[in-house]
Amino acid sequence: MANLMTEMLKGTLEGIVLQILSGQPAYGYEITARLRANGFTDIAEGTIYALLIRIEKRGLVDVDKRPSEKGPPRKVYSLNALGQDYLNEFWRTWSFLAEHLDQLRNGGSR
Amino acid sequence: MANLMTEMLKGTLEGIVLQILSGQPAYGYEITARLRANGFTDIAEGTIYALLIRIEKRGLVDVDKRPSEKGPPRKVYSLNALGQDYLNEFWRTWSFLAEHLDQLRNGGSR
DNA sequence: ACTGGTAGATAGTAGCACTAAGTACCGGAG
DNA sequence: CTCCGGTACTTAGTGCTACTATCTACCAGT
């Protein structure tokens, strides 16, 4: 059975990660941990890595590889100008959706 | 380039349609028209029909076929008890997501 | 030597919205 | 009478996204 949250995250998870990166640069493992701390306990690690590669290919983030004291080198992602534009667009779309859903929920379907 | 809204609708469009049906029974064409009137101008007709068939197969709605004065017979969908449960669950999930996104947006990522 | 925590990559799967094309029915314009 | 436009529904195929599962790699402590 498909999970409701799984489907709802499609499209929004990307914005969530970009928003996190807009605060400060971060690497994958850190982002996953931050998400979990933030209540999104069920998001798989692999999902985040795949997403990061995707937004990197789209040129929304810059990457800086630096050695870690523990384990393999980290890939530190930071939001660039294009990413910021995309993030703004994301929030505009989200606001539209959230507004209309609220409206629909409160009987305002007429 | 993938549309932001398209991806964001995944998972939520289903809830939107169920919410519309919770007010009163409706048929596909009508639902499409209502969505368009509600600001969702870019939702394709085919999408709604596919979605309706899906939720019918899952047993979330009951179907009543009745002749139309214009064109082929309408398939009138109405929300049943299982659908209502699912809708409640949908709103709970949505609220969680909306809350956490708001929190994240207002610098509350720490 | 082994376990556990840190860090990332990837092949395969399922679900969803979209595109595009079609069927079917009817009324009115030409 | 034929054609067009509006109503109403169907369906095959596509692309994108999150998930599962598994793998590599590095290091510290026992």
Automatic annotation (TrEMBL), chains A, B:
Ranges for domain Transcription regulator PadR N-terminal: 17-88
Residues that span the membrane, as ranges: none
InterPro entries membership: Metal_resp_DNA-bind_regulator, Tscrpt_reg_PadR_N, WH-like_DNA-bd_sf, WH_DNA-bd_sf
Origin superkingdom: Bacteria
Name of the protein: PadR family transcriptional regulator
